[in-house]
Design a protein that fits this description.
The structure is a homotetramer.
Chain A (H helix, E strand, L loop, with lengths): L1 E6 L4 H11 L4 E7 L6 E2 H4 L10 E2 L4 H6 L4 E4 L6 H10 L3 E4 L9 H7 L7 H4 L3 E2 L2 H10 L2 E3 L3 H17 L3 E10 L14 H4 L4 E2 L8 H12 L6 E6 L6 E9 L7 H11 L6 E3 L17 E8 L2 E8 L7 H11 L10
Parallel strand pairs in A: 1-2, 1-5, 5-6, 6-8, 7-8, 9-11, 13-14
Antiparallel strand pairs in A: 3-4, 9-12, 10-11, 12-15, 14-15
């Protein structure tokens, strides 16, 4: 059994990782930590775990965490915090799956501008692998430091990668209009996330300025083999979880590809991806289809010359914890779907 | 025009009072105050007021509030805070409508036990009138210090007063199972009220120990002319606003009253109450029927020998701001419905 | 007092019209009709009207409706049904406000294609005025047949009209990504609108093929004085009411207009529009700001060279009943805001 | 592998059974049927099953169903329909788990009154076992015809059985105030269940007259060894799924049992029940704790002399499909928790 540590166990992502690991046939939870005032039973904080996982979580120092006999650590920590933890585990020889943005961006200056924070461990940037299994499975197999993608980037990049790969040179313009459930903002009290503020409400935020945009552009540009700057606009919606991204693609020449052809490209591109489902022409995915699962559902339509792509994920699973476990499976030689279906 | 001050203007209740006053034909808002860090335009805090009420609210001292030329003040303040403000306005000769619990209870020891706070202005308790217009209209007309009822007590007492009045002596047992929307907890961030925690969820709290219970018992006992101790159990529900109270009444002798007769008693009892609506036999109210209104809708059923009463209000209107304005209308000689229909 | 008939009184739009008229100082409801199996008290169908409006509504024939002494009729009827009613009232000399799409499109062939229905009253198309007061107030004053805009077109056109007016020639591309509450689909049972299907869910539909698109394009083209074909993609969201449209505008030359300048154009364009509110730079509207009101709130951002506009309305008010009453006010010489603030 | 048929596969309960069976280590789905107009792929009707379960379901005759090689059938059919199907499968020697009410009541006259339908297969009533594993595990092991309890009865009976068992003779009065999510009403369109009707709303229905009440009373009476007539009042709440029952128990003599003692009784009573969790004194369950699980969470409080019990289940799992699978496990000698954790 693989021995695993979860840091940040009381966040929405952390507890989701723990729930997945509890059902995983090859893994044992060897330790936990969380930024909390005093130790608490996980099942007191999350009553759904009562009788299933009654372990106590506490705020452990990095020294104490290093004493635990473990093979791999999930860092479900805030941006700028992960980078302080990862090197210690790596030096000990452990595998690290970091769910923050700290090792996702190739260009440190972009990181430092986006997250308004000086990066302290530049030497690791080059060794980290961007953990989107549908694009980088071979690299993921070999890495010790995995940068798990953000939720918006996962939905966005998966919706566009086949198109970038096939006709990236002809694409002139990409707009990503994303709608997200509120767990994407983390498990913390804030008036804006109060039930009575968000119920029957919706709003756009950080228009063209979201910290996930550089991550999206980095990966789209690699896939297209040219510089792509998508316009990314997120919207907070009255849902617990789930992301629906509506993606608009314009081309710099006449777009005479049939929708059916484009769908074929997608199916071919994802033929070995067990968690991506491409919808048939004339049908589009809903968030309900992916809720509580690790799937990314993608539907494609043509409207005039534009290509419109709908991409749905559960932000806490394929957008975070599920993808992290999928990456662990690949890094450790388990079946890619283990514990995820 | 009556000149009015609103203290606590940025709470859910405070802003609701302001919205009602803006549509009121006889009133002018002369001043506001709120416990906030720095002055803010009301329409920045509540964008629905943009262009309608762009005044700035700030944290005014009692001295500054007393300098405002005003006839009446609404204290939409937390329990234990109101009592520090009310006497100053009263001494100046102003009318005071207090929406906290500070002057609702006749018995100071009950207050101090329920709110875990020593009462500093005992001398005012006797002069305050409990502001349930359906029971105390004559006293309300004459008072200068009005204790506006709590939201749960309003729904509960109105649902039971006619029965207590008619057959109080025969009633042996009262259970009030109340379901409330989340605005009842006030406009403040807390993890329990986070959209993702409350959506698709529900829970009971303070079973038999809610601070509103003594207020309910006080008024039921007066109406019954004997001591009544109802069991009050509130539940938080995934709704922005609204209370539905399901009330179970048992009797200490054979209950051979027909449902139709009981409904007649209620209609007679409330014949001069413009904001209480009694449903016909076989029909029961829903929260949607009273949302955004000052109505209390009441339906009655018999189940075996028990009487079951369903009572619905909007917790922010008939349960707080609307009732406060209704009381203002009565205290100031306006039409009782002014600004409320 | 103006005597008014409401046809379609039991739909979401119909009852909203009635609620507005009940508070309107210049209007009296002279008659109602609805496609229902048997007569019903409006307050039984809509308990919030209990004691306020207990009139009975029934399925009246056009002959019976014509016998009512009335000056104006609201047709809150489905597309293709309104056209059968309107001419009768017009011939009698009454004013007609039609909330369906039947008289909105100048080009009959576009109507017949969009609504898959042969238009039986072509002769009236030319005399109808498109009822967007912010664009056509002078024509509205004089018309007897008013085509009240759709909810999506209202949010969309108001968000773009000033831009079309000012720099329409330079605009190359418009995408409208709209999110709507479920009342937009009308008051009828359907599995897709079931609480358990829509809660925590969202989906796009009729991508680039919604019947409101031609209406949007017609008005944008007029405003731009050139042919505009916006891509319109609606999304159903877990909200009772409200529309948030996110509009993306690209230009065919370098866009060096500052956001502040664009906001100035909007403020100037709408300076006489009491129900349009333009947000300051750096702030964007939320649906909560316009809920239960007749306002359209608009915020503008620049993202790279693109202009992003956020437009919010209450789909049942500014998107239907409220705008209809606003048009009635203008047609009848009342204050434009009468009954709407 | 056990070969299983699911009748009613496209209802909320039917599809939930299928999802559980797909993860069950000992079971194979051998056939399906549903009352639908034309055959449909399960993954078209329920997109979450895409790629996981793409089988076609159709409206099969009983003759065709009997031709399938199968060991056990789940009847997720409406009341009064199940009774027409069950005997055929029994005669063939198959095991039958019926999720309707058709075989739950010992007294046929009570059934016929509650469901307003003449029972056509009285001879089977005596052989059916009421499938509450926490009470009847031994009988369940041996039966071929299992009557799976209703959702409200499951939450209600589990909340009271230990008390009935221990002090049933002293109990004078039981009130069950239940709040349910909307999937309890089945997967069918109805205006009352429309998102815009149920959102921010709540109502009581069938006060003291719900068809589940006799089932509750039958089991409470057996447990108490005396006649118990609980007052059962259900409320529809704006939730997809989940039931929270608040149960009020009065006694006919002084109740001097400590809460801690009562909790001990419950823990002892359920010591072999893997899906019942008893909360510690001072804590109460929430619906979120049992959502998407087969658990029944129970918390107990004392309020004066009354005992207040809070019981939570997921209505589609422990209240239907999950309990049916639990019963299958027991009937077939599998581990009771198989496929359910």
């Amino acid at each position: 059994m693989l021995k695993v540590i979860v840091c940040g166990a009381t966040g929405y992502t952390g507890v989701e990782i723990i729930k997945l690991l509890l059902k995983h046939p090859e893994v044992k939870i060897a330790g936990m930590s969380a930024k909390i005032d005093k130790p608490v039973k996980m099942s007191d904080e999350f009553p759904e775990l009562k009788g299933i996982f009654d372990e106590v979580v506490e705020d452990k120092s990095i020294q104490d965490l290093l004493k635990i006999d473990a093979d791999l650590v999930f860092l479900a920590l805030p941006h700028t915090v992960s980078m302080e933890f990862a090197p210690h585990f790596l030096k000990k020889g452990m595998k690290v799956i970091d769910l923050s943005a700290d090792f996702r961006l190739d260009d440190l200056s972009v990181y430092e501008k986006s997250y308004k924070h000086k990066h302290s461990f530049k030497e690791y940037i080059g060794t980290a692998v961007y953990g989107l299994p549908e694009l980088y499975k071979d690299k993921i197999k070999k890495t010790k430091l995995l940068a798990n993608p953000g939720c918006f980037p996962t939905a966005s990049i998966l919706s566009l990668a086949p198109l970038m790969d096939k006709i990236g040179q002809a694409i002139s313009d990409v707009i990503i209009d994303a709608k997200t459930g509120v767990t994407g903002a983390g498990r913390k009290a804030a008036l804006a996330f109060h039930f009575s503020e968000l119920s029957d409400n919706m709003w756009a935020y950080k228009v063209g300025a979201h910290q996930h945009a550089p991550e999206i552009n980095q990966e789209l540009s690699k896939a297209a083999k040219k510089n792509i700057t998508a316009l990314f606009v997120p919207h907070l919606s009255p849902m617990k979880r789930g992301i629906l991204a509506t993606v608009y693609v314009s081309m710099n020449k006449k777009n005479d590809f049939a929708c059916a052809d484009i769908i074929k490209w997608y199916k071919a591109f994802y033929k070995n991806a067990p968690f991506v489902r491409i919808y048939e022409e004339g049908t589009l995915p809903k968030i309900s289809g992916v809720l509580n699962s690790n799937f990314c559902d993608i539907g494609i339509a043509k409207a005039g010359e534009k290509i419109v792509i709908i991409s749905c994920i559960d932000n806490l699973l394929k957008g975070a914890a599920g993808q992290a476990v999928q990456n662990m499976n690949i890094m450790c030689g388990f079946k890619e779907e283990a514990g995820l279906l």
